[in-house]
Design a protein that fits this description.
Layout: H1 5-11, H2 23-31, H3 38-47, E1 55-57, E2 63-65, H4 72-83, E3 90-91, E4 93-95, E5 98-100, E6 104-105, H5 106-113, E7 124-128, H6 134-141, E8 146-150, H7 154-165, E9 173-176, E10 189-195, H8 204-214, E11 215-226, E12 235-236, E13 251-252, H9 254-263, E14 267-276, H10 293-296, E15 297-298, E16 301-305, E17 313-320
């Protein structure tokens, strides 16, 4: 099973040390209640071979390389193990010559977000709803001192640990299987990311307040979420599903989202990017057995979802505590 003790040791002498009052007990309880597949997924990580990479690139990609190419047997063994952890949603990863072609080209989003951020060099960062951790590695590539991702999905934890193993067991990033509502207010992170989470929250203002509670004074929030066109009173509340997703509750306009952030105490709130999700950014691959964006859109009109709502459009909002 995945061992969180190295992370506890890592934060024991930092300003994250108050987290140790609650986190070890939470992780002990979590391990007693894990998904039936978790043991199998954790074994997959354990079975991955220890092959040291000679070069690692986290600045322009998430990539590890060896001086000598893998044998066909080694390559097929690693692919077999990684495919036991499907579906791979956020990526892509280039690991020892193996291209894990994930559903989402998360590098597209990173390229839209990065130019607008306060420099990440030497920052302590929280990535809420981090998935398998793709963006966490890119944050490390920008010089972050420590990146902590939280996501309660056990498969994502095992995907993250598999990637970490093929990146020479890099400890600058760590994934903790919690939701933000389970975190005590640490007020310890220089930058907090919440990307693709807000529309899954039944209480979006509570989510924004929880994000604010994790930031140091002056710290930066990076919020990326679905939006619709309209004024500050425009909010879409889907009746049943949105793009075949059951757990979508509130999709605000950019103006409404800015108003929500101001209402929860954020300052210097500004929208830095709006982009319609393209069929190049989210698509089916060999690393995904499920449906993808093309299946969620009206086949006769890609400007609408299959339910008739506006097709996915995403905004990036920055704000400060």
């Amino acid at each position: 099973m995945i061992d969180f003790r190295p992370f506890y040791q890592q934060i024991a002498t930092t300003h994250l040390s108050p987290w140790l009052e609650t986190l070890p007990l939470q992780m002990k309880q979590w391990q007693q209640q894990t998904h039936g597949e978790y043991a199998k997924w954790a074994k997959v990580v354990e079975f991955l071979p220890h092959l040291s990479a000679s070069r690692i690139d986290l600045k322009s990609a998430v990539k590890s390389e060896c001086d000598s190419a893998l044998s066909d047997g080694e390559r097929q063994r690693i692919i077999h193990h990684l495919k036991q952890l499907m579906p791979w949603r956020k990526g892509p990863y280039h690991l020892l010559g193996i291209h894990v072609d994930c559903e989402w080209r998360s590098d597209f989003k990173w390229d839209r977000v990065l130019p607008h951020l306060a420099p990440l060099q030497d920052r302590t960062i929280l990535d809420v709803g981090c998935g398998s951790g793709y963006h966490m590695w890119r944050m490390v590539g920008e010089g972050a001192k420590m990146v902590v991702g939280i996501d309660p999905t056990e498969l994502f934890l095992c995907q993250f640990e598999a990637v970490r193993k093929l990146l020479n067991d890099d400890r600058r990033a760590n994934l903790i299987p919690l939701g933000i509502e389970q975190m005590q207010p640490l007020a310890a992170f220089d930058t907090v990311f919440s990307m693709g989470v807000l529309y899954h929250r039944k209480s979006p203002l509570d989510h924004l307040s929880q994000l604010r509670a994790q930031l140091v004074n002056g710290g930066e929030l990076v919020l990326e979420t679905l939006v619709v066109d309209g004024d500050e009173n425009t909010v879409l509340v889907p009746m049943d599903r949105y793009a075949k997703m059951k757990n979508v509750y509130f999709i605000p306009s950019v103006a409404a989202l800015i108003h929500w952030l101001q209402k929860t105490g954020f300052k210097n709130v500004r929208c830095v990017d709006v982009a319609v999700t393209s069929l190049e950014e989210q698509r089916k691959t060999d690393w995904l057995e499920n449906e993808s964006l093309i299946d969620f859109l009206d086949p006769a009109d890609h400007s609408k979802t299959i339910e008739g709502y506006p097709a996915p459009k995403r905004a990036v909002i920055l704000a400060n505590k």
